[in-house]
Amino acid sequence: MFTKKTQAEIDKMTPEHAEDYFAAKEAYELTQRDEAIKAATEKLEKELTDTMNKMDQLGLKIQELETKGTVGEDNAVRKEFEANKEKIRSIMKGGREAVVIKALTTRASAVNNPNFYGLPDIGQLQHRAIRVTDLFMKKKISDANTNGIITYMDWDADTTVRAAAMRAEGALFPESTAKWKKGSIPIEKIGDTLVVTEEFGEDAQDFENELVPFLQTNIALTEENQIFQGGGTSNELFGLATVAPVYVPTAQAIQDPTIYDLINAVKADITTGTNFMPDFVIMNETCYNKMISTKDDHGNYIQPPFADRQLTNISGLTVVISSVLANSNAMMIGQRSKGAIYERTGIELSEGYTGTQFTEDEKTIKARKRMAFLVRDCEKDAFRYVTNISGNLVTLGS
Asked: What is the pTM of this model?
C-alpha cells in the first residue's frame, strides 16, 4: 500500500529508494484517476438512462393525449418527436445529428391559461406639488371655547408715532404715541366626501385603501390654494395674494433688467426703512424657466453672482416653484415668519350614512379640516405681490 512521504523524508532516501517511491506514487495516482473516471462514467450512464426513461414516459404521455382526442399543435409536436426520437437519443450519447422541429409552439397553444403576474402596487394620480403650505408655521388651537373666531391685538400703524429725538439740556422731551387695535379672523372649514358601497370595502381592499390618501390630498391642495389666494370672503381664508401689497416699481435705469434684477428690487422695496427680511420668492415653472434661461449677447447663460449655482436661492431668498400661482407673469416675495397657520383640527376622517345609504349598503367617507391663515396688518408690508413682471422690468430699465 502506497504511503505519501513528506519532502523531508524524501530527502533522506537513497537514490534507489527514491526511484522506487516515485514509481509507486505514479502508479497510485494513475489508479486513483482511473477510479475517478470510472465513477464519473457510471454516474453519466445512470443520468443518461434516467433521461431516456423520462423521454419514453413523455412519448407515452403524448400518445395518451392523442388517443384522448387532443388535436392541433400538440399532435404535430408529438409526430415530430416520434420522427426524430432516434436522432435525439444519438445526440444525448454524444452524436452530432441535426433535429428540426417544424411545428412552432407559442403561448397561444396553452388555451385558457389562467396564469399572470399582477403588479402589487397601484399607480398614483398626479397632483401639483404642495410647497407653499410648508413655508409657514403651524399652530394648534387648543381652546374649546373659541366661538369659531381668532382674535388678536395688532399695532395701529396709522396712529402710532415714534417721536424720539436729540434734546438740549433742560429742553422738553418729545412724546411718542403707541396705540393698538383688535383684529379677528374666522376659523374656516375645508371639506370633502366620497360615497362607496360596502361591497367595495369588502371585495376591493387595495383600492379602498387609496381613498383616504385621495381625500387627504384633496384637502391639502385646497388648503394651499387658499393660503396663497383665498379672498377672505364666503368662507375663504385671507390668502397672500389678498393681504400682500402689490409691488409698484420705480424707474431705476437698470441696463437690460432681468427677473433676477426685479427680485432684488422688490426685496429692497420691502427692506428699505423696515426690519423685515424677506426669505422666499414664489413663482411657477414657466416663470422660473424664463428667469434661468437668461443669456448674454453671445448665447451664454447668465449666472448672477448673488445666486447659488443651482439657482434655488437668490439674494437670500429661497425659490419656491409652485403651480398654485398660475400666472407666469407674477410672483410673490415675503418673509415666512410673518404668516402663520392656525389649526383647530388636523385632517379628520369619518364615515356615516345619509338618506337611504344605510338600506342601500352604501356609506359616505368624509374629510374635514378647520383652520385660519393670519398675516397681521402691521406685518403685511413684509410681503409684495408682483402682478406684472414684464411691465415692471420695463419700468426698472427706464
From this structure: 0.69
